[in-house]
Give the backbone structure.
Amino acid sequence: MKVLICGIICLFALCEANPLIPSSHDVVSRALESIDYNNIVPRELITRLKFLTETDILGGSEIKVVLNQYADTIFNNLQNFIRNHNWQNIDIPDTHLKITGGSVDLTRGNLNDLDTISRGGDVILTYEGDNKKLVIELPITFGDLRFHYHHHTKALFISMSGEIDGTVQHVQISAIASLDLNANTIFLDHYDMKHSGDVSVHFSGNPVVDWLANALSAVVTTFMGQVIVNVMAKFIRDNLRAVIEKLNEAIADIINN
């Protein structure tokens, strides 16, 4: 049981650091045979595991370990991976918005600086003896995210085009995953966008009268708040699910081989 718990932690780190590794079996083999656990598995976790007895593990004991330093290393690896593969920027959808007396078409949109992903609070690993589960609480945050759109606006007798640049700050996400030791399967138990971010916008490329600027700013700010929720939710959720899928494949390899 102790080896399995350590192995899962190591596999989590490897999947986060290199999510495109082609063979889970090769990763598992290397993790079990050649990894220096003292450097990869958090020292506090090793210490706690050393003094665990089978009675502790099977008898309902609860163990909590804070993995902040360990998580920071994983997030640093993830940041580098995003940069190395030029995934800092993603496209965001075109849309048609209504404003007072007219409409705005937003096109050629992109969201930048996804490589600012980092730990958003304490990362806590809990072993729940009663439920035979290993649970990890993973708070995620981003630095300032920049976005850009081209806009074409029609209002009353005015028709104009220009650029919209903006910033989204304080995006916060909460995720909880668990390893069910009865089923030997990892699940994504909880995922929540705790804060969709504070949005600011700036218009350029064409003079905008005050009333129209106010109308544009209000509608774009509201729209971007929802866009960020959708885009970031998909970005994080899809990656978490991909990591969990690889971990489950790796666990199956450990058990079956």
